[in-house]
Queue: 3 jobs
Job 1
Amino acid sequence: MTLFNIRSPRKNQRFRRNFRNALPQTPAPEMPYSPMALTGEAVIDDIDHVESHLVALHTPAAFETEQYRMLAQRIEQMHKSHGLRVMAVSSPSMGDGKTTTVINLAGVLSQSPGMRVLLIETDLRCPCVSLLLGLDLPRPHNLVDAVVNPALALKDVVTWCAPFNFALLPGGPPIASHHELLASPRLGELIEEARQHYDCILIDTPPMVPFSDCRILSRWIDGFFVVVTAHKTPRRELQQALSTIDAHKIIGLIFNQDDHVAPSSYYADYYHAKSTRSR
Ligand SMILES: Nc1ncnc2c1ncn2[C@@H]1O[C@H](COP(=O)(O)OP(=O)(O)OP(=O)(O)O)[C@@H](O)[C@H]1O
Ligand SMILES: [Mg+2]
């Protein structure tokens, strides 16, 4: 199992202000690469409508984004070495940062040449990916529709998120019958179809301890990342969460909002001090 640390963007605001102009911006890919010809497209034309903690979309060159990028590199390695393709992001309880983490990961992974990324929202209790992305979805259909209506193919319900380089399958409005839907072989078929078209399929899920959704979903999933809120998630709750999934499916723990000083900020402070001295 691998451990990853993600610092809180809020703690880094002053730091970002100091460095925003000094850092080279990661160039956007020249042409968005859409792996499915008929994918609908939603254009996010105002970055201010995107939730501020989605740092990978706001500031690709920020140090927080770099932390997601390091995790993305490990995902790419695991994809190449072990064929991992369908990865869920979950956590023990509500509000640990699952959705923030999974969107940031989609943002950085999709910048990798040749990585075709699909984000699927399976949190049908509190679906909010589109909201966080500030997206006005052009398609009337979503995951729930595609499961209920087999006449809808994956390409009919996936939306390309421009200018970001990933595709989204939104969950749909909150529904009561989550369990039947998540256990449905039709969902398995849709994920199988996604495997043919995408290199990395990231799944946003509900929390593991209060709900059994992740256990039900796990049959379709290659591996889980478990987000832990640093200094908040009790050890017992984490153990409880891990016990809900087969141990071999847990890929790694992501320590979110871990605000101890990361080595990268030492470098940044060092370079900042140096550049101030040399003026
Ligand atoms: N690294 C971070 N630094 C600061 N705030 C964060 C970070 N990650 C998440 N947050 C904030 O924490 C709150 C919860 O995040 P998010 O919605 O991603 O959690 P979640 O685990 O998906 O919640 P839910 O269980 O309701 O689906 C949001 O306000 C988000 O902006
Ligand atoms: Mg969420």
Job 2
Amino acid sequence: MQQLLCPSCHHSIDAKNINVAANIAKCTDRNTIFKISELIVDIKFPENPEPPAGSKIMFNKENDNRYSFLLSN
Ligand SMILES: [Zn+2]
């Protein structure tokens, strides 16, 4: 689930108040106009994420002790 939040008051912004073509969004709480790029994107992940059944997570060690991972079927 993904929500766009007002950067000023952190209220969620309804889709009808977002104009993608004009790159603006309106917070109805204070009638404030923002650029879409200024909004806070709030993505909620499940608390115990599990890969879809039948897939594997492959970890790849990269330089500087960093890891990347791939989901494969
Ligand atoms: Zn607001």
Job 3
Amino acid sequence: MLAGDLAGLTFTETLAPRAPFRSFREKGSHHAEGKPEIPKRRINDCPEHVCGSLIHARMPVVNLAGANAAAQESIVGKGKSDGAPLLVLIVMHVSRLIRYPIDIVSVSIVLCALSLQLTALARNWPWYFVFPIFFLIREVNLIEHNHMHLSIFRSRFLNALLGWMCHLSGGVPLDSYRLHHVTNHHRYNNRFDAGRRDWSSLFGFRGTRFPDRPISKAYYVLSFPFLAHGETLLWFLRSPTSKPTRGFIVSMAIVGPVSLFLAWLNPVGFVTFFVIPWVGILFGMGNNNYDQHKGCEMTDTHNAANSFLTFYYTVLSFNVGYHLAHHHKPNLHWSLLPDCHEALMRSKPGSGLQPQLAATVRESARACSESS
Ligand SMILES: [Zn+2]
């Protein structure tokens, strides 16, 4: 019976947030009778409250209590496994560590990038290996971005460990990234006035005007590492005992000596496979931020950011291309952003898209409504 329940799980269902050890049906209704309930502690991740009911339709209605018990028995070797598929048991076990099992991919990429960098340095690989390494480090930067919005693991230590690995691989400490990006950028979103100062605003320069006259892209990208990260360092200096500062110091205390050792081991390799990608990422972050916000009217949530829905910016970029949806609900897991984007588009067709694409979407939406 239990094996049958487990075998009935679809791939989408296994990607859903882990429920507490009882079924959704046992917990009663959420918004309407007969619908599964979202556990309270996950309510902030539920896009129902901002984006519609798309996710609820995908939530599994299975008894995870039984499933987890079977997984436990199988893993510790007690009792029989009832023939449950090994993959499901593994996913159940991983879901005890990771909020969303799909983030096994995220963790694997970080491990892969760092392993490749260390191997290239230790084996003195040719300089052109920096290209695949740089591609992976870009992914690491995106994973770190997702991780600071919604931590990947349930364990505080594992979250910190992943942050240190991202720091060593991509050069950006998790705590400074979080301070600048979550506390500052998402909070003020390019405002730069007396009360709201986004350190990475496109309009924080003399001669600019919010929201229609930004600084030039070239100057913005070149100045981004100094302004955004410089302001972050100043904040740390002004708040020496704060939690972000302590996290930053711990990360530097771990990554700093490791970096020095690697530089001593192979100075040229360290510069090629670590320092150059780090610098590239710093300027790349400015480049992305400019594209994601340039031209936005910033009058409401439907025009606060640009979306880029190409294969590269969605599938190969952990859905960062759904940037309007990301600004709309920053703590929403990256795998759920397409649904949130869809809901935003339904409420206002063309939201967050570049003008030409937005006009096409509005036109087709108008045609659809007229024909129906
Ligand atoms: Zn973000």
